[in-house]
Amino acid sequence: MLKKGLLLLSLILFGSSYYYTEYVPVLMNRTDLEASVEMAGEAKPITDPGKLCLYQQWVLLVEKYKGIHLIDNSDPSNPVNRDFLRVPGCRDVVVGNGILYADNAVDLVGISVDFSALTASVVCRKKAILPEVDSPEGYIPSKFKRWNRPDNTEIVAWVSVTKESESSYYNYE
Question: Domain segments of the chain: what residues?
Answer without folding.
Answer: 27-129
